[in-house]
Amino acid sequence: MSEVFLQNPAIDAPIVFVDLETTGGSTGEHRITEVGVVEVGPEGVSRWSTLVDPQQSIPPFIQQLTGITDAMVRGAPTFDAIAPALFERLDGKLFIAHNASFDRGFLRSEFRRAGLAFNPDVLCTVRLSRALFPAEKRHGLDALVERHALVPSDRHRALADADLLWQFWQRLHGLVSVDVLRTQIDRTLRRYRLAGDITEDLLDTAPAGCGVYAFYGEGDLPLYVGRSVRVRQRLRSHLTGERRSSKDLRLAQQVRRVEWLATGGELGAMLAEAQWIATLRPGQNRLPRVAKSDPVDAPWPFDGPIVFEERDEELQARAFHVVDRWRYVGHAPSLAQAASLHASSVAGSFELSTYRILQTHLARGLRVMPLGVSVNAGTASVA
């Protein structure tokens, strides 16, 4: 077993230091030409590397930078050929790389093409270096080599650069206490392998704009309901963000499932959030206080259901929200679909939260119209 792994367990789990060489910087257009892995775990340290046939030409300036030529990769295995063995080598281990989003992004794309979902927890040594040595201005690999007396064997080759990261890791255990190192690792670690069925791929499908979301724990117990003008970004902040609060960290440890609903606007998100909280009664949300003066029912000031429109200019989306007798019915992308939504809905009881929110916005001049009025007929301001 590695002596450093035993005596300085800043991370008491297997880790892999990874570096790639590629034909360029775009995961959509370019391909991997070389993979280098240094694996450190209970069995000690092992090294592995291979050239990869990218099945496209390597630009001359990259050939000059890395020394990897078209002739060298001709006849090398394709990524598809090495994918199963490489995935097994990396799976379940902490993924450490320099500018890690680059290496992780390329591997994630290549594994996806091979039919494998790659979502490791990731530690970027650039971010870790910045966190541990904030007075230093440069944190590139060449700067680390110079600053920490690392010994390069063949710069810009995958295994040699991965080995530099392993050397850097060993130096850190002599420069920084284990407690400090653990603290900064916790702050800079990106956890992509989330609990339950939640993965980075799943978060990619969350709404980019306004919406509401709910977290569930063991036994599908509702934990928390929230809303955001950028749901996908907010979910990442809760579950994978580097600057999460202690409350977010505790919540993330309990989450097993997440669901969301795009609302097309902020007011719709407020109405949906309040409705979800009242229905789910999640443990980490404060339920709204009910005062003695609050009505248990209230007269509906309209002849029937009403609809109001919200537009997300950034996403170029429209949402028509339906409210009937102080109950939020939902929203649809057109008036015709909003009418169908109302027709298929089940009559519900008075919602105090909807009453409070809508009364406030009506007083501010929210423009509503009876459901069924055409767009060309205009809207009426209801006080």
From TrEMBL:
GO cellular component: cytosol
EC numbers on record: 2.7.7.7
Transmembrane segments: none
A family per Pfam: GIY-YIG
Catalysed transformations (reactions): DNA(n) + a 2'-deoxyribonucleoside 5'-triphosphate = DNA(n+1) + diphosphate
Enzyme class: transferase
PROSITE patterns: GIY_YIG
InterPro entries (alphabetical): DnaQ, GIY-YIG_endonuc, GIY-YIG_endonuc_sf, GIY-YIG_UvrC_Cho, Ribonucl_H, RNaseH-like_sf, RNaseH_sf
GO molecular function: 3'-5' exonuclease activity; DNA binding; DNA-directed DNA polymerase activity
Function: DNA polymerase III is a complex, multichain enzyme responsible for most of the replicative synthesis in bacteria. The epsilon subunit contain the editing function and is a proofreading 3'-5' exonuclease.
NCBIfam families xref list: dnaq
Protein name: DNA-directed DNA polymerase
Source organism of this protein record: Paraburkholderia phenazinium
Upper taxonomic lineage: Bacteria, Pseudomonadati, Pseudomonadota, Betaproteobacteria, Burkholderiales
